[in-house]
Amino acid sequence: MAARGCALEAVPLPPEVRESLAELELELSEGDITQKGYEKKRAKLLARYIPLLQGVDPSLQAENRVSGPAQTSAVAPKQQKPRPANSRDERFRSDVHTEAVQAALAKYKERKMPMPSKRRSVLVHSSVETYTPPDTSSASEDEGSLRRPGRLTSTPLQSHSNIEPWLDRVIQGSSTSSSASSTSSHPGGRPAAAPSAAATATLTGPAAHAHIDLHSAPPDVTTGLVELSHCERPQLASVRGVPRGYSGSVLETAGGKLWSRSLKLAYTLLNKLTSKNEPLLNPGDRVALVFPNSDPVMFMVAFYGCLLAELVPVPIEVPLTRKDAGSQQVGFLLGSCGVTLALTTDACQKGLPKAQTGEVATFKGWPPLAWLVIDGKHLTKPPKDWHPQAQDAGAGTAYIEYKTSKEGSTVGVTVSHASLLAQCRALTQACGYSEAETLTNVLDFKRDAGLWHGVLTSVMNRMHVISIPYALMKVNPLSWIQKVCSYKARAALVKSRDMHWSLLAQRGQRDVSLSSLRMLIVADGANPWSISSCDAFLNVFQSRGLRPEVICPCATSPEALTVAIRRPPDLGGPPPRKAVLSMNGLSFGVIRVDTEEKLSVLTVQDVGQVLPGADVCVVKVEGAPYLCKTDEVGEICVHSSATGTAYYGLLGITKSVFETVPLTAGGAPVSERPFTRTGLLGFVGPDDLVFVVGKLDGLMVVGVRRHNADDVVATALAVEPMKFVYRGRIAVFSVTVLHDDRIVLVAEQRPDASEEDSFQWMSRVLQAIDSIHQVGVYCLALVPANTLPKAPLGGIHISETKQRFLEGMLHPCNVLMCPHTCVTNLPKPRQKQPEVGPASMIVGNLVAGKRIAQASGRELAHLEDSDQARKFLFLPDVLQWRAHTTPDHPLFLLLNAKGTVTSTATCVQLHKRAERVAAALMEKARLNVGDHVALVYPPGVDLIAAFYGCLYCGCVPVTVRPPHPQNLATTLPTVKMIVEVSKSACVLTTQAIMRLLKSKDAGAAVDVRTWPTIVDTDDIPKKKVASIFRPPSPDVLAYLDFSVSTTGILAGVKMSHAATSALCRSIKLQCELYPSRQIAICLDPYCGLGFALWCLCSVYSGHQSVLVPPLELESNVSLWLSAVSQYKARVTFCSYSVMEMCTRGLGTQTGVLRMKGVNLSCVRTCMVVAEERPRIALTQSFSKLFKDLGLPARAVSTTFGCRVNVAICLQPNRLGKLAEQGTAGPDPTTVYVDMRALRHDRVRLVERGSPHSLPLTESGKILPGVKVIIAHTETKGPLGDSHLGEIWVSSPHNATGYYTVYGEEALHADHFSARLSFGDTQTIWARTGYLGFLRRTELTDASGERHDALYVVGSLDETLELRGMRYHPIDIETSVVRAHRSIAECAVFTWTNLLVVVVELDGLEQDALDLVALVTNVVLEEHHLVVGVVVIVDPGVIPINSRGEKQRMHLRDGFLADQLDPIYVAYNM
Description:
Layout: H1 2-9, H2 15-29, H3 35-46, H4 50-54, H5 58-65, H6 70-73, H7 95-107, E1 117-118, H8 163-172, E2 177-184, E3 199-201, H9 210-213, H10 221-228, E4 247-254, H11 255-272, E5 274-275, E6 278-279, E7 286-290, H12 296-308, E8 312-316, H13 327-336, E9 341-344, H14 346-351, E10 370-373, E11 397-404, E12 410-416, H15 417-431, E13 438-441, H16 448-460, E14 464-467, H17 470-475, H18 479-487, E15 491-494, H19 496-505, E16 519-522, H20 530-541, E17 551-557, E18 561-565, E19 578-582, H21 583-587, E20 601-605, E21 609-610, E22 615-619, E23 634-639, E24 646-647, H22 651-658, E25 676-684, E26 690-695, E27 699-702, E28 705-708, H23 709-717, H24 721-724, E29 725-737, E30 740-749, H25 755-773, E31 777-784, H26 798-807, E32 814-817, H27 819-822, E33 842-843, E34 846-847, E35 850-851, E36 854-856, H28 866-871, H29 875-885, E37 890-895, E38 901-906, H30 907-923, E39 932-936, H31 941-952, E40 956-960, H32 968-981, E41 984-989, H33 991-998, H34 1000-1005, E42 1013-1016, E43 1037-1044, E44 1050-1056, H35 1057-1071, E45 1078-1082, ...
Parallel strand pairs: 2-14, 7-8, 7-9, 9-10, 13-14, 13-15, 15-16, 16-17, 30-31, 37-46, 39-40, 39-41, 41-42, 45-46, 45-47, 47-48, 48-49, 61-62
Antiparallel strand pairs: 1-63, 2-4, 3-4, 5-6, 11-12, 12-24, 17-18, 18-21, 19-20, 22-23, 23-25, 25-26, 27-28, 29-30, 31-32, 33-34, 34-35, 36-53, 37-38, 43-44, 44-55, 49-50, 51-52, 53-54, 54-56, 56-57, 58-59, 60-61, 62-63
Helix pairs in contact: 2-3, 7-25, 11-12, 15-16, 19-20, 29-30, 30-31, 35-36, 38-40, 43-44
């Protein structure tokens, strides 16, 4: 493209040939003709002019071949192709730095790092749109409004000469030409016409500047217009690769036009806009200016129109969608400035998003705006005698420029009339501008240097301005150089990006000369990395007439406007200098000169001296503004009449930024006058030259060292940038995790990058940053191309990117976290002290000055006559007695999913069925007394009958959960294992399950030939047993209770007849159960308290149990609550899993349930049966949710039991008459403990809501006959009140021991027969294996004693020992689940000292990787732990047992055996 375009410009081709060429180009760009056909036709057209074309100066051609540094020569000779998109990232590059990075990487041996593993489906990239405007990279400054957005404001400065006459004089004395090469990007595809310009030549692209190029000198307006007027129609040529709808137009406006149109606008604004007959605007009101970058003329009309009308213009970017990145903040700014009107052009207004009504849509966060189109036909001509008010130029606000801060908030910097004038004068003097000079401007003319030079100073000096819009630069990066060349422009205003782009496009350009330039102002000279672009540009273009002294970097800031600018020697500037600084020194804020050979150096160029009439100083960044020493880097501050005056409406920060008084080391102010902080970091060098090393916005303080985001970006880009990063788009920012800034690097990867490439690139970037900056990167994320939020000029919107990262909305396709290396401020690991014996002094019942932590339920002896207790010693006797005395009293009702009763049992029916089972066992299975029998039944009355049948014939029953027919492979082995471990001689079951146990599918999971005798009890004959077995002593084994603990251990405990009846008796007393009561039970009947309530208690106490199998809730969630309501159950029992199903499944249906008549006001107590710490959040949300259905506020309570004693605490009902009889206890209490102290095995009570507080609620009231004490886990000595230790229990219903096949009772013997090491050494205790503490409360029991509350903290087996501290998995899991809304469930375990977090993702797979950083952050912040591995899995992967407890060890085994089929596994380095 470039080669063709400019070769033609050298020879004046006839217009018709140009036209044909243009049409050819258009055909090719739209795909109507092949490349080959194009070449052919083009050659034919140009055949007659070829000799002319070949006559180009051969020295130029030769120079072109060997020009420039490596970048230029390394390109293939085919210039026809559009430039490769990835060449952008050179902008940040210096070859030295690239070599440094490569050298640094070479020092690293290839370290083996585990690759993250990912499920294939996540890899699908979102497609990159077919045409992406090539935009620039990263956080760097070059992106217009990225980090250095502009600002608005209003404030007083001493009054200057009158502004009006200045405007009059300048604009009216109209021989100015503001010629703007502008590109219309309006959807219509029509070139934007220059409204009412005297003549318009619409010319496009590099090839079509025929007429203008004939001018040897800048056109003086009159001749220029005359010469141009002979073109009959606008010529249209096409530029290859330009999307449709782009066309460039060179607009010539006479200066008089600017004056008359501004005046017209001012008149319209002041006189023609009304609302409710009041004028809409009053002088001083703020007005938004919304203009595209392609329309400088209309912008100038609007800007000067506002100034003439004494309104304050607030230029902002054109919003593209209803919620652009950062547009909410812009809306906030407009709202706080009280903007009600927006000015725009016709074409721009048509392109804005519309609401249904056809009005311009309201953008997210914006105030309601009226839109005024300012094209000529919409304005009213003022009467002859109308003149705008001539006001005193001074403190009044001239305009407001917006600026986006590091956090993303947008503020407005107000610039007063006096400052505006002073700025223009200072720039005129510094740059030596004179009348009729031509300035080529590539910058955004709405703000910053583009506004100050291209709109304000240029009008003041009556200069010609040629504006090159960003869209044209994207299509033809050489356009600005061609304009400089064709108009012999004396000054050009560019960014290093533009120089860089033109370097890449300049090959094959032979006739470009930059000799006319006396100043090439580099607006982002303050970016330390601009020096590489300047050097490379000079290298290439020096041979084309560019003089080295022409390059003038400048430093600007929204607050201080132009801070410094390099003057050419003829304007008295000192010679330019550069400094080579040690990056390590800079990170400590000091200047250390280094050599360029070193790896970690930063080379910076000076940005000249401050503007005429300004003073500069450098102050410390943190704390009071003390002056820096000469070798320190600090924030540059400027005092001048030409700075901004305030942040609009923000008095507090205005004072600290615009009215800083620098102090000497002694604390005395340096001068009377206030200085303005510029937000630039740097120092003042020799000859008073200013050097800038970075921006405050890009500063990241890690530990004590300061790093600049731009420097880190440059290092990352130097790691093989071409191959990997899409268009060099990299964002670097810091997030605060654990009281320190952590560096996060986000890059867009090329669409074709493989998993392998990305991982390799990531590890190399980490190594490069580590060796050059000596700082660790906390998180490195790769996102698909084009997915990072864009700033208005195409760069990356950093604050929005950071926001998305923190909210888990970034959707990366690859993540590498390195918390191990960069989190160095973790508290020191706890050192375990060497073992010392019991040091506590024990006096009476005090230990170490505290009351011994022990508590007990009510005494059994007082409560009941011993006669009845003796009569009820054996449950078989009780059943026979009930069958005899109250034969028809119903004991059990079993409900199915529909809520209908499927089976019932009265006392006599149960007795008879039990006899039949006993007879079958004796006859069919020929069992002996004491044999063990496995009962494999679904929940129901058959199970209960079989249990009593076993007791009737002296066998020992073992209840076993039947295998799941759909999941035999995992459930059947557990059944087989229990049958084998319990040494069962026979299996009792139903016909269906019997078939299942022997089926072919079962054969795949277990060896079906080794089952003991299987007896089905479906059709057993009606037989009586000769005599019912009566045990010789109460200590004979009654049944075995097998259960799989959460740590995956199968443990069976032995329950004697005495313990069984004692258990029933305690429950009966605590819950006041007697025959007239009905209770509803929704628990699994296979082990623990669930089994006791389901099978034992009804027979013992005679109450009626409504049985609801939890499995049935899967098909009808409301079953349990409907049953409670229907049977008016005062007492009901459930498990946490049931409660969770109801909370989740019925959350939105309470209204429907009420309509169906569900009423829970009958419930006195709803007890959650559990062997864990009470789940407060769940019980509270359950209570809150079903309060609508009449559930009393205090009905829900918790219970606690464990393997050694299935019922230690039950919270009984606390209402009604029974309170007087001494049974009701106080309400359960909740305390808040410090989670950090808990890790050290200490209890520290804190206030609710204090940081790190963890709510614990007591586990219920201790049962009658139960004694509890807290013992030290290691010394086994008693502990004091509110001390954390193991809960030990002594009670008549303790189990008598573990039943294990391997004879390991010795190992666990002390679990059942432990004694304290000092104090009361006689009592035999059972160790529960749970940590907890006792606390005496202010409440009193019915007996008048103070109430002792037992708090369970968690199981000892489950705790994780990490960094010398003890963590409870549930605490870490709770934090993780809160981290992101799509985390459904979480489980943690350790693996080789690494913490593994498994997270269930309830969302789209592409969100999976967002969770990695969030999970790592929250665990670091709240628990001071570094997560080693994050595993993201599908919902339902974390195994949960019937009690609703997570089976973490099963999960761990699945992880190690690679059976989880994870979506993503991230190994945090």
